[in-house]
Amino acid sequence: MNPDNKLNQRSIEIMEPQMIGRTTTPIRQDYFILKKEFLASIDLKKSSIDVYSRQLESFIQWISERNVVEPSRDDLLQYKDFLYKKDLSALTISSYIVVVRKFFAWLESNKIYPNIARDIKGMKRNRGFRKDTLSMDQIRTVLTTINVSNTKGKRDFAIINLLIRTGLRTIEITRANLSDIRQKGGCSILWIQGKGRDTKDEFVVLTEDTLKPIQTYLDSRPSNSKRERSPLFMSHSSRNSGQRLTTRSISRIVKNHLIGAGIDNARITAHSLRHTAITLALQAGASIQEAQALGRHANINTTMIYAHNINRIENAPELKIEKILNPLKQ
User: Fold this and answer.
1) Contact 190/181 with Cβ under 8 angstroms?
2) Which residues fall within 8 angstroms of residue 302, CB to CB, at 6 or more apart?
3) Read out DSSP for 269-309?
4) Closest CA relative to residue 118, chosen from 129, 131, 128, 108
5) Residue 15 in 3-state DSSP?
6) Residue 29: per-residue pLDDT
């Protein structure tokens, strides 16, 4: 039995009554159902399954628009090229390909269709970072240009100051509650739920200069918004007042203040503040292990990239060449 017949037989076996009479092609109907079964078999958080669903839908739509009845390895390579031409990042393209690989591996394990994606590779990731860091002058400019005369301004200052001094991710700030600020070993700390974590089992130390703006912001909030389970940072717009800030909102807040400070650069975003914090820690003498703890990197090689970038600049051979060539200017 060839792969095409396998798919057609599967369509008949699992076709639901409500699917009959649809105008979509048989292959589209088949993948529509197979996608649901595949996603149901995955033991991941709902947010991760939602990402898988969107990414797999992209592939299904692509093959359907091209009337691909019997997908082959060459079709997958063309799909990969399609993603590349959309000017997506290497990381994003790789994540799309990973989902397709998992899908075809699942199809083969259930004897539905051969795994034609087994040796399809993702894109090579950049050795460095796609986001720049802020200089000391830029940090001062951003913080001093925020209007802190109202609650919203106090909140924005506290968020940006926190990002720069602790290297938190926007998702970690979004998840933080008032009750997560506690005392440990004589220091104020903020318990956080890190990326990929189910509980708040990590923390960052809040220095006086980090904690004071947060307290100033909290003091300006209405008393009914200061319950322990209340979000540490919330919306103060008329539409969403009192609701937890989303990662998108935090990114937008940071970007708006960067632009307001004259830093209108696509390579400098909210995530750049995380890069800035880890870089500053290393420049201040933190060890690789200490910087790894700050960034909560699972792999120390990620932290090593920061150290390599710093060392590459501070010990740049180009500067040594310049010293030799300087006399030629005279």
Assistant:
1) yes
2) 292, 295
3) -HHHHHHHHHHHHHHTT--HHHHHHHHT-SSHHHHHHHHHH
4) 108
5) coil
6) 54
Could you report the per-residue pLDDT of 149-173, keeping only the tens digit for each?
999 999 999 999 999 999 999 999 9
Phi-psi region of 191 (alpha: psi -120 to 50; beta: other; left: phi over 0): beta
Domain carrying residue 61? 3-109
pTM of the model: 0.64
DSSP 49-92: HHHHHHHHHHHHHHHHHTT-SS--HHHHHHHHHHHHHTT--HHH
Q: Tokens 């926190």 correspond to what residue?
A: 162
Same domain, 195 and 266: yes
172 & 78 share domain: no
> Cα separations (Å) of 199 from 28, 225, 256, 287?
39, 23, 31, 27
Residue finishing a domain among 109, 144, 174? 109
Same-domain check for residues 220 and 76 = no
Indicate whether 164 and 49 sit together in one domain. no
* Residue 187 sits in the same domain as residue 224: yes
Q: Are 68 and 151 contained in the same domain? A: no
User: How are beta strands 202-206 and 181-184 bridged, if at all?
Assistant: unpaired
- Alpha carbons within 13 A on the beta-carbon side of 281: 24
More confident position, 2 or 221: 221
Classify residue 272 as exposed, middle or buried by CB count within 10 Å of its CB (0-12, 13-18, 19+).
buried
241: in domain: yes
12-48 pLDDT per residue, tens: 343 333 333 333 334 445 888 899 999 999 888 887 8
Question: Domain of 197: which CATH number?
Answer: 1.10.443.10
Looking at the fold, whether 144 and 95 belong to one and the same domain comes out as no
Question: Looking at this protein, which amino acid is placed at residue 317?
Answer: P
**Residue 145, CA distances (Å) to 106, 165, 198, 305 in order:** 53, 18, 37, 31
